[in-house]
Write a structure and sequence with these properties.
There is one protein chain. The chain is an alpha/beta fold. The chain contains eleven helices and ten strands. Strand 2 and strand 3 form a beta hairpin. 34% of the residues lie in helices and 22% in strands. It folds into two domains: 197 residues, P-loop containing nucleotide triphosphate hydrolases (Rossmann fold, 3-Layer(aba) Sandwich); 106 residues, GMP Synthetase, Chain A, domain 3.
Length: 325
């Protein structure tokens, strides 16, 4: 491996940016696009992300540390309280906040001139957190925050963007970047705006590092992603995945993984298993392919479903499954 910028004495823009916003506006897709690698799971359903996920992008002498976060929303009971706290705590100690919203309204082609009430709530929470005594001193809110208008690929006519951008500017935000996290449009200008806000310094992480999350964590997330993709109603929100065995047999070119899917009720277990075991087989097949892509080797995956009754309502059970109450 060659010298890092720290070893060579050269310094570039180095720092952290948190990606925050309401549920289902594309935060995890943006993280993956900015990194050029998939480390965060995605689905069309809101509240797919439960934990903060740190990703690292290093190019030249620059290093950007990105924090993907759960959607900020009003519900603060049980697991939702943990998720919102994960998001809000990510705002502390970062040089830049990417406040992500979407430009495509649920109906019609025009973008509304007024902010979505859910965006209003996110903005209120962001202002409150950045005004805390432990927030960075001397940093104006508008200077630290980049408003990112996502999903412009959904608009055939871009003119409705103008009134929405004017509304955000009226709130005091100077920097607005329209993007499509899905197609990559606008990503380079967004990177430029982030880089402008990063101080110069040595690299914080090794150049080859992509995330601080363990392979076990990423494997569990990829299994949970397939549950989101393949089951409906309340099932994905009532499920946690625990990797019980992760045996790396790279000398044989494979990895052995046993994972438990924890559901809250017997009826949910029945849905996850499916008639004749077809659903759990389909989840395992799809998850195995994603895990093999991540690890770059053959994967042997065994899934079992266990009923952990009402685990989302139990602080002890949430802690056991990795969601500290």
């Amino acid at each position: 491996m060659g010298k890092t910028s720290e070893q060579s004495g050269e310094q570039g823009g180095v720092g952290a940016a948190a990606i925050v916003g309401r549920p289902n506006v594309g935060k995890s897709t943006l993280l993956n696009t900015l990194l050029g690698e998939k480390i965060a799971i995605v689905s069309p359903r809101p509240q797919t992300t439960r934990n903060r996920i740190l990703g690292v992008r290093t190019w030249g002498r620059n290093q950007l540390v990105l924090l993907d976060t759960p959607g900020i929303h009003r519900r603060r009971a049980n697991l939702n309280r943990f998720m919102v706290r994960e998001a809000l705590e990510s705002l502390h100690g970062v040089e830049c906040v990417l406040l992500l919203t979407e430009v495509a309204p649920p109906r019609g082609e025009g973008a509304p001139e007024a902010l979505d009430p859910a965006d209003e709530y996110v903005l209120e929470q962001v202002r409150e957190q950045l005004a805390r005594p432990d927030a960075a001193e001397g940093e104006a809110l508008a200077r630290r925050v980049v408003v990112v208008l996502n999903k412009i690929d959904r608009l055939r006519d871009r003119r409705p963007l103008l009134p929405l951008m004017a509304t955000w500017r009226d709130r005091g935000f100077e920097t607005l970047v329209p993007i499509s996290a899905l197609t990559g449009e606008g990503i380079e200008p967004l990177l430029g705006e982030i880089l402008r806000r990063l101080p110069r310094g040595p690299l914080l992480y090794p150049e080859e590092m992509l995330t601080d999350r363990s392979e076990r964590f990423l494997v569990a997330e990829l299994i949970r992603e397939q549950i989101f993709q393949r089951t409906g109603e309340e099932v994905p929100y009532s499920v946690a995945v625990e990797v019980e065995r992760f045996e790396d047999r790279r000398e044989r070119g494979d990895v052995m993984i046993d994972a438990i899917i924890h559901a809250e009720r017997d009826s949910q277990k029945a849905i996850l298993v499916g008639k004749g075991g077809q659903q759990i087989k389909a989840i395992g097949t799809a998850a195995r392919a994603e895990i093999a892509r991540l690890l770059g080797c053959t994967v042997h995956l065994r899934l079992t479903v266990h009923v952990e009754r009402n685990w989302t309502h139990s602080p002890g059970a949430r802690r056991k499954l990795g969601y500290d109450a």
